[in-house]
């Protein structure tokens, strides 16, 4: 309960911050998008990772106002990068099931984009397969409205849930993120290589983009590249870091 109260206060006191982790297009090495990942800058505990507070935020419903703050902040940051003249990048935000169950989610997203002055096509919403399992008809309607608005939808941690293939047919999905558990041993485990290869071929056939998550070594990158994986994310390129960290990396457009 004290943690819950702490979190409520933390929202008012602006103790949450966003880090960003790039997804890189390995064909030319440029950043295709930035994923926003929330952290809690706690006055006494220091930087608290989302694994320590997102589950409680979901249970208590605090994820709704927290998630709105994340979305608004990420959209504003992306607009600021555009205004500063950096090469175009999309911004990705993770959404919990609890947020998708809000009747006004679509309006909330619309307002966040409008207030930031960001066109919907710059926003990617990341959801896990488990989100798609819940009350599928209602969720599909929500996703259709988001997609009609121009927002892009990514399936996070792809391959760790179930019914993935069925839901791929029914949901307006634009990209798949291959879960890091398939990437970790990909350089020496032929099974992981086969699974990643199959996901990439399927995605090509379905016209979906594929992002490999958790790429930490050059060897992993090379195996994935040979499988035609164009987008990668992981410590090899960058850890999640505050927005300012990327200023020297981004380079201005000519
Ligand atoms: O950044 P880190 O690896 O600690 O993230 C751990 C988990 O927290 C990831 O699964 C990530 O998707 C989730 N997460 C990070 N930021 C957010 C957020 O803003 N909203 C939601 N719902 N989940 C987030
Ligand atoms: O579930 P989700 O994909 O949203 O989780 C994102 C989290 O994964 C980030 O918070 C980040 O800390 C972690 N992460 C990102 N890249 C790597 C990586 O290369 N290796 C490992 N082990 N974790 C990573
Ligand atoms: Na994610
Ligand atoms: Mn993921």
TrEMBL record:
Source organism superkingdom: Bacteria
Domain EAL, residue spans: 1-254
Coiled-coil boundaries: none
Descriptive protein name: EAL domain-containing protein
